[in-house]
Specification:
seven-stranded mixed β-sheet; 1 helix; 16% helix
């Protein structure tokens, strides 16, 4: 009888230990990295530096009226408009042009232009 009680107690301990274990890492829900949404900003100012890399891309610096300088990346997705609101290319931009730029501040620190309007 004692042997039966001891065996039953041991089985109960083993079963409770098995049930108390955490789910193995391979079976756990994968952790989804929190996505950081880019911040959309705008700046009005003068182009103080322009570097055209191709017919659709380049970089520029814009200085606002307070003297703040913002570096902007331009790519094929950037919409560029002249003062009459006609679509133009990056080759139409020139240093000293007054512009209004809508851009995304990306998590990696790059400011990517969405649209550039040349202002007269």
């Amino acid at each position: 009888m004692k042997t039966l009680v001891i065996i039953t107690a041991m089985i109960a301990l083993l079963v409770s230990a098995c049930l108390a274990q955490e789910t193995p890492a391979a079976e756990q829900e994968p952790q989804v990295a929190e996505q950081v949404m880019p911040i959309v900003k705008a700046i009005m100012g003068e182009i103080t530096k322009l570097d055209v890399a191709s017919t659709t891309s380049g970089t520029l610096e814009v200085t606002d009226p307070n003297g703040a300088i913002v570096g902007i990346k331009v790519d094929a997705e950037t919409k560029i408009y002249d003062a009459s609101l006609f679509a133009v290319g990056i080759s139409n931009l020139k240093e000293k042009d007054n512009v209004k730029i809508s851009y995304k501040e990306l998590p990696d620190g790059i400011n990517k232009a969405q649209s550039i309007n040349i202002v007269k």
